[in-house]
Design brief:
alpha+beta, Double Stranded RNA Binding Domain, three-stranded antiparallel beta sheet, 3 strands
């Protein structure tokens, strides 16, 4: 799972808002940072393109939030009790939809 996808999963599950801010540097490279619920995270290092800069910005935010791919995957495990919870079903369907989007 990409860093952006991991962060999106976390954002969706916690009903937070996310924005990416991008800038082109004087060297014709790109930097990006993540803003979650108004909290600004560190700028990425310069990258060759916007996509890579966004991935690096997502990685920085995940590190600062102490979120790992493993912890996200553990959260996605479905128990019978949570399966009966309507909100959990909606969250799972959103996660599946996002995973399908990134693989197509």
């Amino acid at each position: 799972m990409s860093y952006k996808q991991q962060l999106k999963t976390y954002i969706d599950r916690n009903k937070l808002t996310i924005n990416y801010e991008e800038k082109e540097t004087n060297n014709k490279l790109f930097i990006s940072r993540v803003i979650i619920n108004g909290k600004e995270y560190e700028w990425s290092l310069e990258q060759q393109n916007k996509k890579t800069a966004k991935q690096e910005a997502a990685k920085i935010a995940l590190n600062e939030l102490n979120i790992t791919e493993e912890s996200l995957l553990n959260e996605l495990n479905i128990t019978e009790e949570s399966f009966l919870n309507e909100e959990s079903i909606k969250d799972i369907l959103l996660d599946i939809r996002e995973l399908l989007k990134t693989r197509l």
